[in-house]
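Internal tracking record. Fields below are filled automatically when a chain is submitted to the structure queue. Please do not edit lines marked as system-generated. If the sequence contains nonstandard residues, flag them in the REMARKS field before resubmitting.
Queue: standard
Priority: normal
Entity type: single polypeptide chain
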Amino acid sequence: MNTLVSRLTEEGYADRIVNDRQLARILGGSDDRRYGQVKRALKSGGLIQLKRGFYVLSQNYRTQPVHPFALAHTFIIGSYVSMETALSFHGWIPEAVYTTVSVTPGRKSKHVAHDQFGKFEFNPLALNKPSFLSGVERHVLDNQPVLIATPLRALMDIVAYRKQAWAGMGWIESGLRIDLSYLLALRRRDFKALEGVYKHKKAKLFLTELETEVFDLKFIPSAAAP
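SYSTEM-GENERATED OUTPUT FOLLOWS
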């Protein structure tokens, strides 16, 4: 086993994403010596580079796979998983999603295609900064902390990204293939949490119209009722 790989395993970092600062603390020594160890570990395949200064051990030395959502947070620090990826995670859409889609706090879109870990997409939205993480929850997946949008936040992020105007429930049910039962399970506080998130009037109007439609449908009397 490579010396660097052995030290990371001994220090409890086998299943974690590590950066240069952590490597400096764990390995000690001069920069040149440390960089030499990193190069040898990369060459042997024991260490995999995610981006400059960030690494993971190969699956041969891990007890569980690195989760793509955790990787997304590393590629763009401060991002959160959303849109179709989050909807799929929550079971709101039937299709599998093969690109991990996130919302970035930056101003530019970014696409990452890692030869071992797949594709990642990061999209900026017109959001009010204080509300950037409203409707975003922390989850722990395979012992890895990640940030994932709630279903309503993920849906509204798609609306904001596509600049989708309200056109009734048909677009949501047919276009995104979201079952009406999921929408009817939403609560007032789910909508309230997103009131200050979006800057564009179109997205804010969509949220208002969706809330009205959902609660109108909830209180339609049953045809069987007397």
